[in-house]
Design a protein that fits this description.
This protein has ten helices and 19 strands. With 406 residues, the chain is an alpha+beta fold. β18 and β19 form a beta hairpin. α7 packs across α8 and α7 packs across α9.
Length: 406
Amino acid sequence: MSIEIKVPPLPESVSDATLVAWHKNAGESVSRDENLVDLETDKVVLEVPAPASGTIAKIVVENGTTVEAGDVLAILEEGEVTDTESVAAKSEVPAKKVAAVAATEVSGPLKTSPAVRRLLDEHDLDATMVMGSGKDGRITKSDVMSFLKSDDSVNVAPGDQEPVADENLEIDIVRTEQRVPMTRLRARIAERLVDAQQSAAMLTTFNEVDLTEVMALRKKYKESFEKKHKVKLGFMSFFAKAAVEALKRFPVINASVEGTEIIYHNYFDIGIAVSSDRGLMVPVIRDVDQMNFAEFESALTEVAGKAQAGTIGMDDLTGGTFTITNGGIFGSMMSTPILNQPQSAILGMHSIQQRPMVVDGDIVARPMMYLAVTYDHRIIDGKEAVQFLVSIKEQLEDPARLLLQI
């Protein structure tokens, strides 16, 4: 029985997707629910599973094609699955040779220098037999020498001696460029960043926070916290809870602009910027004001894991009222984050560094972090932005305020 593999319904507000990768080829067997192909939209990657076990009879749409919901991607012939792995395991071809041939089929003709070609000719070797360790799979002299010493050097006649390296042999230097189109996500990120720059009156204010008390509290309780709640106690929960308390005091910073209207949100859905292989994502954690530290850390771990795995959904990425981004995990000392529209503000965290500070007249080393809040000056005055950041600073330097909400 033939089954059409179709593009599933796309998320709301998404009109099309790009087919980025087939995981199966025509003629290969698949199991029910096995992922066949990845479709990339502006924000998420959708997996298309096999509706039944069988064999891919025909691939209709190739990689890089733009598709819409309902488009036919492939034809599946339902039936018994062939155990392709056991067939491969019985092959008498050495694994290294299989890998070398596979690499040749993927990468095209192998590029070798005159010195390497001469060495291959001396030992009657084919370039496809040798695994290249150089850039783009390029074969080096050491690769050929390693192959000759291995058990795979079946073409080396008995009695052949290891050649002496000639330092005067010519070596080719190849300068290459690679032109790669932006992914859908990267193009969307670029579009949103430019829109934010052009439509909002962005301004950034800075402050610094002494994290001595937060670090001491975390060090004291992190083991018992993890043992009880089965999740690690990170810094982000302190910053998120401090931000929520500050947002309650300055509601306009939790607001957004729509035309000539200001929309005040009486809830606190906090976006946390997460770096993934596909680019920056901002999953949203809902109702952070109603969460304790353990609930927040669990929610953050869940959405961050989904972002890294590429399984995050549109619902996880929409509807935030305020965003926190942590450039400190990459070593950033100070930066000016860009608004995540339509939000009116974003908090930037940075790396923690021991710096000399004057405390009660003495110079002491303290773990300090620069904080930045970028805000939309159309609706937020500088006074409110500065006081908002001071509020966060006060709560983090005296974490008891977080518990007492003062």
